[in-house]
Every structure is written in C-alpha cells, then in structure tokens.
Amino acid sequence: MPKIRLFCPEPLQIDQTVELAEKNAHYLLNVMKLSCGDKLWLFDNQNGEFEAEIVEATKKKCRLKLITQSQEFFQSPDLWLLFAPLKKDKTDFVIEKACELGVRKICPTLTARTNSEKVRLERLTAQTIEACEQCRRVDLPEIQSPLPLPKLLQNWPKERILFLMDESGKGTPIAQAFAACCGKKAAILVGPEGGFAPQEFELLQKYDFVKSISLGPRILRAETAAAAALSCWQALCGDWKD
Ligand code: SAM
C-alpha cells in the first residue's frame, strides 16, 4: 500500500486534531476506503511531516489525530525554473517534474513565441501539491505569476545565475557550466516550443548573470529540456550528490 500523504494548509504539531477538507475526506474514505484507526501522513510546508491516525470517519467528515513527527521540515535546494508555458498537458508535465526534481520556485515566463498565455495559477498550485504529496517533499515550490521575459530580466536578483537553455548550439556544455557554478544561486530558463526569438537571444546576452548552456547536439522538446537540465543540476550541484 503506497504511503498516503496529504498537504495540510494549516500549521501542524503533534497531538493536534485536524479536520480534513471535504475533497480530502472523500479521497481517503471513499476512494482509498480508509477508516478509523488507519494511518497516513500530513505535511504543512513549514513544520515537517507528521504521522496521523483517522479518529473520526463519517459520510462528510474525517478527523485525524497527529501521533508523531516523521520528518523535520527542510526546503528543496535553492533552484528556480523559468519556463515558457506550453500546451496544457506539456505544462502539466513540466510542473510535475519540477516538483519531483526539487525546484524551489517556478516562474512561468512569457516569451515572443509562447504558445499559451493563459496560465491558471490555481491549477498549477493544485498540481504542485499533488506532485509533492507523491514524491514525499515536505515543502511546496513557490509559483510566481507569469511575467514577460524582459520584465523578469529587468528585476532579476543579480546574485542568481540564469542558465539559458540555448538550443542554438553556442552554449557551454551543461555539465561543465554547472560544475563551475556549484554553490551559487541558480535558475534554469527553457524556451517555448518555437524557441527563443532572435531579439530575445540578443536581450539575454546583454546581462552578465545569463550563461548560455547546451544540452547537446539534438533539439529537445521544451519539457524534455526542462527535466534534463534540472536533473543535471541536482546531480552536479543539488541534493542528488549528498
Ligand atoms: N528553436 C528550436 C528548434 O530549432 O526546433 C525549438 C525550441 S526547443 C523545442 C524548446 C526549448 O528547449 C528551447 O528554447 C531551449 O530552451 C530548449 N532546448 C532544446 N534543445 C536544446 C539543446 N540542445 N540545448 C539547449 N537547450 C535546448
């Protein structure tokens, strides 16, 4: 039986009794067929993860008692992902992989050739919660409202390196570039299906916090490039090497 974990927006502590929202109560009692005495885990994105026992289960209500703390709170590595929103299912994929691959902040970035401008933040938030419940994170990534690339660059925190996934082939090989910058705050920028426009490449090159990166000789789909770049960073600089 997989470990059932649920995000709880209210702050948690041992011995507390929590009443689940209707949606989660329905999932536990009617979908997962749990009942009084069964155990699951809750996390709240600030105090860690707690083992809880169902103490009340009625048609509409499910109350849990927190028994022990099973994980201390800790944040995923300080890595941001900037990506140009894609078609729905591909954006879903990017969000889910970004959570599993331990991104701390997700910034939907509007570029000249972005396919779908409409990004529904509540949908992205629901997806990050589901992905973090599954992959046993105790923190949730921050999701920034979509911003146009030029505006993002104007207000960029200068101490953070922006690794531009540059499909033109002019970038530094990714392993070499990341290995040289471990320990520094980092962000990865992936373009849309149609790539970055020439004027965007020109703009990006003006900023010395931008480093062009190559993901090899083949043109990857944006969602592949995002997952590949995040994996490389975790393996070389993040929490895959601990
Ligand atoms: N302009 C591309 C073409 O020539 O078909 C299409 C863009 S690609 C589908 C989407 C994004 O993935 C790019 O903007 C880039 O950020 C990233 N990407 C894909 N292949 C890459 C590579 N070999 N090196 C670096 N980034 C890559």
Task: Describe, in plain words, how this protein is organized in 3D.
The protein has 242 residues and is of the alpha/beta class. It has two domains: 67 residues, Ribosomal Protein L25, Chain P; 158 residues, 3-Layer(aba) Sandwich (Alpha/beta knot). 30% of the residues lie in helices and 26% in strands. It is built from seven helices and 13 strands. The strands form two sheets. Strands 6, 7, 8, 9, 10, 11, 12 and 13 form an eight-stranded parallel sheet that branches. The chain has a five-stranded mixed sheet with strand order 1-3-4-5-2. β7, α3 and β8 form a beta-alpha-beta unit. The longest helix has 15 residues. It is elongated and about 60 Å long. It starts with a strand and ends in a 6-residue tail after the last helix. The mean pLDDT is 95. The structure holds S-adenosylmethionine. The site of S-adenosylmethionine has 18 residues, from α7.
Structure at a glance:
By secondary structure, the protein is of the alpha/beta class.
SSE layout and pairings?
Blueprint: E1 5-7, E2 17-19, H1 22-31, E3 39-43, E4 49-57, E5 62-71, E6 79-83, H2 88-100, E7 105-110, H3 121-135, E8 142-143, E9 147-148, H4 149-154, E10 161-165, E11 172-173, H5 174-179, E12 186-190, H6 198-205, E13 210-214, H7 222-236
Parallel strand pairs: 1-3, 6-7, 6-12, 7-8, 7-9, 10-12, 10-13, 11-13
Antiparallel strand pairs: 2-5, 3-4, 4-5
Helix pairs in contact: 2-3, 2-7
